[in-house]
Design brief:
mainly alpha, two-stranded antiparallel sheet, about 70% helix
Length: about 450
């Protein structure tokens, strides 16, 4: 078996990486160690400055900007993400200043948003560099291990459902990363189905749906491969949408009919009856976001807090689907200390306006392109599919802060190299090389 460490080749010299071949073996091993340890540290999210939610991984990644920044030119869209991130920070500051006349503002909130965005960009850049030093499988396994170490067991949500609010994502990333190391597709499929079953039995509806979709795509990749890459990639993208719709309808049917437990059934049926949709019932914050966008399309700013008019507009949007917004949740959580719209896209729009929307759309496009490209040549692992689908979900339905970790990993894994590497490490998901199906 080939090494899990990226091995330089003669072609890399043409791609601008020829200097690496002259490095001593001891230096390359040190780089691998830094890549693994740094990845674990980033995923663990050890907060060292609570006021800014600054983590030890953020500090490491920022300190190593000269190391990882040159690598970003090798990946399509990487520097665009970094540029849009910087512009989002600037737009957030300008919008905050512009909102000061009719909104309360907070310097602390502005600095917190700047810290989170810059930390996310730096960690994403470091993970891209780490992908050059180890395989995608090792990168994902190390990241999953770090997520597992960093699980917080002190929150009320964790106490209510440890799997759903604590271990589901870390265990999924770690297990699927280890399956990618083994390169056994059957093992990956079995593991994905096992994780799907656990999520079904623990009231983790979104995890159940995303893992079921991952399992479906793993199975679909066993189909006869297409020879025309462009048309095949397009069909793969259309297939993703089709599978998503099928999984949604199957999942909703299983939930409503009680196959995922009585508690899940009761909660879901109530949400459908109230709003007419399982998604809107579970994420009514989406209607508040749309109402605020119509009322204040340019956004508010990173340090801006809502006024009475904003809260009223948001409540009216939520009430339009039959949701009761006067339940304490809207006033105390969504708008008690700022804008909390429960979606990456919504949070980016509030903070950075149109620039935030462009950044979110770019992340969505790059993720879909990376996943569909791998699926079209049957080269997408369960790890790649899961983190990609989870990130797409988070863009619409999860808060920015809780989505940061997987966003960093997903972008690092799904971005496509400008120059295909003819000698990727085992477990790497590079551009176009199909992985032969395992038989055992």
């Amino acid at each position: 078996m080939r090494s899990l460490v990226q091995a330089p080749t003669s072609v890399e010299a043409v791609a601008g990486r020829g200097s690496e071949t002259a490095q001593p073996e001891s230096w390359r091993r040190l780089e691998v160690l830094l890549a693994v340890v740094g990845t674990v540290l980033i995923a663990t999210r050890i907060v060292i400055l609570p006021q800014l939610l600054l983590t030890a991984g953020d500090v490491l990644a920022v300190a190593l900007v000269p190391l990882w920044f040159p690598v970003t030119r090798r990946y399509l869209g990487a520097r665009l993400v970094l540029l849009l991130g910087v512009l989002a920070v600037l737009a957030g500051a300008l919008l905050t200043a512009g909102s000061a006349d009719d909104h309360p503002t907070s310097t602390g909130g502005l600095l917190l948003a700047i810290s989170l965005v810059f930390g996310t960009l730096a960690c994403f850049g470091f993970l891209l560099w780490a992908r050059e030093k180890v395989s995608d499988a090792v990168l994902g396994s190390a990241f999953g291990f770090g997520l597992l170490i960093g699980v917080s067991q002190t929150s009320a949500l964790y106490s209510a459902n440890p799997w759903r609010f604590g271990f589901s994502v870390p265990v999924a990333v770690l297990v699927l990363g280890l399956c990618a190391v083994s390169r056994s597709r059957w093992l990956a499929l079995i593991a994905t189905l096992a994780l799907t079953l656990v999520s079904a039995l623990t009231d983790a509806r979104s995890s159940f749906a995303l893992l079921l979709l991952t399992a479906a795509l793993l199975t679909w990749q066993l189909r006869p491969r297409q020879t025309n890459r462009r048309s095949s990639a397009l069909r793969a993208l259309l297939g993703l949408g089709l599978f998503g719709a099928i999984v949604y309808n199957i999942g909703q049917s299983l939930i409503v009919n009680g196959y995922l437990g009585a508690i899940t059934q009761q909660r879901s049926v109530q949400q459908i009856n109230e709003t007419g949709s399982l998604i809107l019932g579970g994420r009514p914050e989406l209607t508040a976001t749309l109402a605020l966008m119509r009322d204040h399309p340019m956004g508010f700013g990173s340090g801006t807090r809502p006024n009475h008019h904003d809260i009223t507009v948001a409540k009216e949007g939520m009430a339009s689907i039959g949701y009761d917004p006067d339940n304490g949740y809207v006033d105390n959580w969504m708008f008690g200390h700022g804008f909390a719209l429960h979606s990456v896209t919504g949070d980016l729009w509030v903070q950075s306006g149109l620039v935030g929307l462009v950044l979110a759309a770019t992340i969505l496009f790059l993720t879909l392109r990376g996943v569909s490209r791998r699926v079209s040549v049957s080269a997408a692992s369960a790890l790649l599919l899961y983190v990609g689908f989870k990130t797409i979900w988070n863009l619409f339905f999860s808060p920015f802060y809780s989505s940061i970790s997987l966003l960093e990993l997903s972008l690092a894994l799904t971005l496509i190299r400008r120059t295909p590497d003819p000698g990727p490490a085992v477990g790497s998901e590079d551009d176009v090389t199909p992985v032969p199906a395992e038989t055992g």
